[in-house]
Amino acid sequence: MAAALTISAVAAVGAAAPAAATPSVYTVTGTVFHDADRDGVLSLGDLPLPKATVELYGSAEDAAAHTGALRSVTTNALGVYSATGLPAGTYFATASADGYRSGAAAQTTVHGLSLVGVADLPAIRQTDLTVTVFADSNGNGVRDAGESALNGKTVILIDVLATQKAIADGSLAAIDVGSAVAGALGGSLDLGDAIRFRTTANGQPITFTDVPEGAYVVMRSPFNLTIGELLANTSRVTALIDLIGSGSADALLAMDPALLDTGDLSTTPRNDYLTKLASGLSRAVAAVDAADTERLLGADASAQLGAVTGTVAQAAGLLAGIPATHFAVVDHWGTSYQLTDLTARKTTDFLFGVRQHVSIAGTVFNDANANGKKDGLETAESVTLTAYRADGTVLGSTRTPSLIGSYKLGGLPYDTDIYLGLSGTAKTPSVRFTGEVPPALADVTLVGSYRLSGTDTADSVTQDIGLAALTAPTATAGAVSASGTATLTLTNTMSAVVSVGYRVNGGASTASTVPAKPLIGSAGTRTVTLTGLVPGENTVTIDWSAGVYDGGTVTLSVVR
């Protein structure tokens, strides 16, 4: 429900306050009415407003400030009010009614034999529009069960006719954007009466309050208004004003893409959204004719809304080609309709489903025991992570902070093979990449590959990365005895236990382990006995692993 609004009457300059000494025999009366045709005159088709509060003031200044009311009365069921027992003078009337704003001014004077003064008060209906921005996990444009509201997403409400006027008289271009942005709180910003910015918060819908009748564009902003980025917000809003006024997206397209990254597939600078916005939005705003709008919102609106025509239809068609954009009207009775698809649907709630880009996130840590899991005392590690296409094209890159080690790579595409590469460290991933390595990435240390379908609900991948200083154990064979045996000493300089399987001349494998390097000492060792050595050269093969890391094979030659 729209908030209570004030309808104020304006007096002639220099009017005198009522004389207190005259007999109190005068009456001020009138009707508070919904001015459906907006002509300021009570006529057929205008509906009276019952239970409206009317206040009388002795000066225009008091009426404007709503201070020092001389009398307060309430309209009856027919919208009529009557204030009796007044002294002679000029009175200034205001009215308050839920969901209405001032449509005209009224004043009246009573004196001498003019015992009754009439002051009718016209009002124009207003309504509240809500906007819900939600995580559209499956990209179907419908808010399904479990799809939550998103915070930090900016939406713009453009009053088409008010914006036309602001462009024509130069007031839009003259706005001091820096001052407006500096005074904006919580991602809310008003550019005169023409354009309003609001940003989602606390999991709640946005509410545009007290929206008067008219034609509106409701759109996801190509950027999110961020708290604390005054200069960035100023330049972005200025560039958007230029786009609306001139149809040029050059200023926006020239910006750092990071300043325009909304996290929404529909409004990212990596597709043609800004180009479509530039070609469609300004033309749509310019196309709407006031007379066409008046006919649509007037008494015959119900007959027209099923098949929108004229310049309103032209604007709706232009806006239909722009992603994340709705076209709406609020009629004389405060009823709102969505016209996005050139047919009318009654609604006060406008939905924007946000399909997030693919993201890869996780933690990079020192995996001292090479078990592939971050244990209590294992610290974070700073590395560079890069996402690639199979042809080597870089999709994104980030450096993990050394104290935290967490990372997130966003803005990645669906239906694409994505490879995650590691650099900036001499350590080895404790979990080896076992997938096929594209030729273009042969020199890249890969830690994972992923492909997310655009029709699935998943839009993120978790990839934790353990790093260890992994080196193969060294193997040394002693002299061969007359019985064909020899000692094999395995040395491990790592902090993780090494598992080995050794065999002679391709025979059966014998399993063993090599202790980790002790706290005091340079290495852990294990000595085993080789048997079955034949005269001549013998090949000893040692397969080793540390935790989840498959280390490969060490080969040793022993001569008997």
TrEMBL record:
Annotated GO MF terms: hydroxymethylglutaryl-CoA reductase (NADPH) activity
Signal peptide range: 1-21
Domain of life: Bacteria
InterPro entries (alphabetical): HMG_CoA_Rdtase, Ig-like_fold, SDr/BOS_complex
Keyword Iron-sulfur found: no
One of the GO BP terms on file: carbohydrate metabolic process
UniProt KW Signal keyword: yes
One protein family per Pfam: CarboxypepD_reg
Keywords: Signal
Protein name: SD-repeat containing protein B domain-containing protein
Organism: Leifsonia shinshuensis
Lineage of the organism: Bacteria, Bacillati, Actinomycetota, Actinomycetes, Micrococcales
